[in-house]
Amino acid sequence: MRKLYRDAREALAGLLRDEMTIMAGGFGLCGIPEMLIEAIRASGVKGLTVISNNAGIDGAGLGVLLETRQIRKMVSSYVGENRLFAHQFLAGELEVEFTPQGTLAERIRAGGAGIPAFFTRTGVGTPVAEGKETREFGGRTYLMEHALFADLAIVHAWKGDHEGNLVYRKTARNFNPVMASAASVTVAEVETLVSTGEIDPDHIHTPGIFIKRMIHVPDAPKRIEQRTVRRRSGAVAGEEA
Predict the structure, then answer these.
(1) Going by DSSP bridges, is the β-strand pair 134-137/117-120 parallel, antiparallel, or unpaired?
(2) pLDDT of the chain along its 241 residues, tens only?
(3) Per-residue pLDDT, 141
(4) pLDDT for 221
(5) Which residues touch 176 (CB under 8 Å, ≥6 apart)?
(6) Which of 177, 165, 33 is nearest to 113 (CA)?
(7) Where are the alpha helices (DSSP H) in the chain?
(8) pLDDT for position 28
(9) Of 50, 42, 63, nearest in space to 20 by CA
(10) Where along the chain do its domains lie?
(11) Which of 39, 96, 121, 182 could bond to 111 as cystine, CB 3.0-4.6 Å?
(12) Which residues pair with 98 in a beta bridge?
C-alpha cells in the first residue's frame, strides 16, 4: 500500500465530509499537524466535531478552523489561549464538551483499545459528572466515561518511515500516539522521513499498521504560544536576555 502522498490536500482527498469527527494531535502548538489542518480549512468542510487537547490560538492551529466557522463542537480540556473560541462559545455558536485532561487522554486510549467505557474518580461531584452514570467501588464513587473514536485522526511525528512507523519527540508525544490508534483512518505529518528498517523497533511509538496515509513536512513550523525569558545571571542593563 502506498502511504506517502505529495501534500496534505492529496493525503486527505476522499476522506473529508461535513459533520465528521476529527481527532487532532498535539499539545498547545507543539506537535500539531499544521499542514493537515490547513488542508482541512481549504477543503471547506463544515459542521466538524474536533477532539483535541486544545483549540490552538487565534490565527494558528485549530484556531484557523474557528475563523472559518468549520467547527461545530470541540471536545477539549484546555482552551484558554483562544479569544475567538471564547467569543463563539459565549455567543452559543460553538458547542464545547470540557473533559479533564487525563480523562480525555484515557477516553482516546480506550477508543483505540476497543474499550467502550471506564470508571474514574476524576470529576465526581463536579459539573463534569452531570448526566453520567456513577458506581461505588471499595466505598468510593466513580464516574463512568465513554471512549472516544473518530472518523479521522491527524497527527504529527518527528520521524517516520515509508511503512508509517512513527516516532514522536518530547511534548508532541502527549496526545499524538493515542489518537493515531483511535480513528477509522489516520493521516500523519512526518518531519524526518527515513527508509523502512532504519528505525529501531524498540523506538517506534506508533506502528505503521495504524497509519493509512502520510506526508513529508521537512520544514514544519515551530511555534511558541507564550515566550517567557529571564535575564541571564551577570547580564548588564540593555543586554539581550
Answers:
(1) unpaired
(2) 789 999 999 999 999 999 999 999 998 889 999 999 999 999 999 999 999 998 888 888 999 999 999 999 999 998 777 889 999 999 999 999 999 999 999 999 999 999 999 999 999 999 999 999 999 999 999 999 999 999 999 999 999 999 999 999 998 999 999 999 999 999 999 999 999 999 999 999 999 999 999 999 998 878 777 777 887 777 665 554 4
(3) 97
(4) 79
(5) 25, 26, 31, 155, 156, 157, 166, 168, 206
(6) 177
(7) 8-11, 34-43, 63-67, 83-90, 101-113, 176-180
(8) 84
(9) 50
(10) 4-121+147-216
(11) 182
(12) 76
Task: Please name the residue that has the C-alpha cell 516516532.
Answer: 167
Question: Scanning the structure block, which residue is given the C-alpha cell 493537515?
Answer: 36
Q: Is there a contact between 143 and 126 (Cβ–Cβ < 8 Å)?
A: no
Helices of type H across 114-200: 176-180
Per-residue cell: 183: 480513528
DSSP 138: T
Contact criterion met (CB below 8 Å) for 157 and 199: no
In this structure, what C-alpha cell is assigned to residue 44? 471547506
Whether the CA torsion 178, 61, 192, 158 is positive or negative: it is: negative
Q: Is 122 helix (H, G, I), strand (E, B) or coil?
A: coil
Only one residue has cell 483535541, namely: 52
Cell of 147: 471512549
- CATH architecture for residues 4-121+147-216: 3-Layer(aba) Sandwich (3.40)
